[in-house]
Amino acid sequence: MNFFRLSFIRFVVACVSLLAISYSIYDSGFNIFQVFAQFTYISNISVILVLFLVCFKCISDKYILMVLPQITLTYIVFALLLSKGIVNETPYSLVEHYFLPIYLLCDYFLFVKERVKIYKVLIVLVTYTVIYMIYMYSYGYFSGYYPYFFIDLTINPLWKVVANSIAIIILVYVIFFVIAAAKQAQNKIYKRFSDKRNTI
């Protein structure tokens, strides 16, 4: 696809997502501290920021992989544990939890050609998850606010919250390695067909 056309699509997606998340925050009445305790919000904000940076050629689109596992986790956890069904979700919730994750997966597998170093992505993921967990539990300890029922220390025993937190962290890395492996397989298949085409 033409670079400018793809950049325009990414720009529109980023703008629509920004409007959706802005209205979601306004409608929920969350304060700024609660916003940053919500994994959904920070994963969406991260994706929006990366898409804008890619659109304006500040970074390569290969860095989409650095935020793809987090937004994919948002989709999986919400769809399996939190959603009351797609037909019952608000339009902005559909954008946050379904549209943006699915779009980014399609974008990455259809249009991203370059490969980012695995260790760079792992550094980002480790930093991302550690900072989020420290902030979220610190804020929860002092305010009593926990964003999700399965990590709420006011209703769950410590061991269960720790187990759920570890499971979430592991799931982020599993998602990353599955995506990375799938992309590598895609590139190998594409190269094989390209080589065959060139020999004909």
From TrEMBL:
Q: Lipid biosynthesis as a keyword?
A: no
Keyword Acyltransferase in annotation: no
Could you list this entry's UniProt keywords, alphabetically sorted. Answer: Membrane, Transmembrane, Transmembrane helix
The membrane spanning regions, by residue number, are 7-26, 32-56, 63-82, 94-111, 118-138, 158-182
Q: Which NCBIfam families match?
A: Pr6Pr
Name recorded for this polypeptide: Putative membrane protein
Q: What is the lineage of its organism?
A: Bacteria, Pseudomonadati, Pseudomonadota, Gammaproteobacteria, Thiotrichales
